[in-house]
Amino acid sequence: MLTVAVLISGTGSNLRALLDAADDPDYPARVVVVGADRQADGLEHAEAYGIPAFTVPYSAYASREDWGAELDAQLRVWNPDLIVLSGLMRLLPAAVVDAWAPRVINTHPAFLPEFPGAHGVRDALAAGAPQTGASVIVVDNGVDSGPILAQERVPVLPDDDEHTLHERIKPVERRLLIDVVRRVATGELDLAAASTPASHTP
Ligand code: GAR
């Protein structure tokens, strides 16, 4: 059984979907802990499922590195097989990424490498893109620049605003995330191999 830590900042709808999926005895992964960088609304999902939760408030630390060191210490208590950034709106310090790589994955509401960063949905709308999407990637030390594990297109509709478009992207993200975690758990998807540049034999 693959053990998963989920890190959030917001409402945690993707977390909730993963908790629902993991409620099925046939699903090969379990969320063992939920962490947040603030008093995120999504922590209530952990409570509803009886999953331990912790908060490492970003604002309480002098630097991103200090915050990351405490986050890392909390994660080490649970020693999960996989860390899912599910709407964590902070960049992890390099020391944390390096300590856990390649076992940190991130969901993103755009078809990467298009529209990386904190405002993927807003940026797609501002660019007038006819379509955007959802992606699940391995986290590296760039901004949404790691290897892509799964992604799917979502059309932008003429009347879309940031909220309506994001709400149409999120169900796609959930489906991709649940499937990626399942494939990591069964060994069908090897994160180390996915993170290694393909070797070319002459
Ligand atoms: C999700 O769409 C996630 O991809 C996005 O925040 C949302 C969180 O929703 N993350 C990013 O934009 C990270 N760059 P949720 O809290 O309802 O799961």
Automatic annotation (TrEMBL):
Q: Which PANTHER family match?
A: PHOSPHORIBOSYLGLYCINAMIDE FORMYLTRANSFERASE (PTHR43369)
HAMAP family, A to Z: PurN
> What pathway is it annotated to?
Purine metabolism; IMP biosynthesis via de novo pathway; N(2)-formyl-N(1)-(5-phospho-D-ribosyl)glycinamide from N(1)-(5-phospho-D-ribosyl)glycinamide (10-formyl THF route): step 1/1
- Give its E.C. classification number: 2.1.2.2
- This protein's source sits in the domain of life called Bacteria
| GO MF, one example | phosphoribosylglycinamide formyltransferase activity
Classification via InterPro entries: Formyl_transf_N, Formyl_transf_N_sf, GART
What positions does the domain Formyl transferase N-terminal occupy? 4-181
- Which gene specifies this protein's sequence? purN
Binding of N(1)-(5-phospho-beta-D-ribosyl)glycinamide occurs at: G12, S13, N14
Q: Which UniProt keywords apply?
A: Purine biosynthesis, Transferase
Q: Where is the active site?
A: H108 (proton donor)
**What positions does the entry give for (6R)-10-formyltetrahydrofolate binding?**
R64, M89, R90, L91, L92, N106
- What is the name of this protein? Phosphoribosylglycinamide formyltransferase
Catalytic activities = N(1)-(5-phospho-beta-D-ribosyl)glycinamide + (6R)-10-formyltetrahydrofolate = N(2)-formyl-N(1)-(5-phospho-beta-D-ribosyl)glycinamide + (6S)-5,6,7,8-tetrahydrofolate + H(+)
Q: Write down the position(s) of the site called Raises pKa of active site His.
A: D144
Family, according to the entry, reads as follows:
Belongs to the GART family.
Pfam families, per this entry? Formyl_trans_N
Q: What does this protein do?
A: Catalyzes the transfer of a formyl group from 10-formyltetrahydrofolate to 5-phospho-ribosyl-glycinamide (GAR), producing 5-phospho-ribosyl-N-formylglycinamide (FGAR) and tetrahydrofolate.
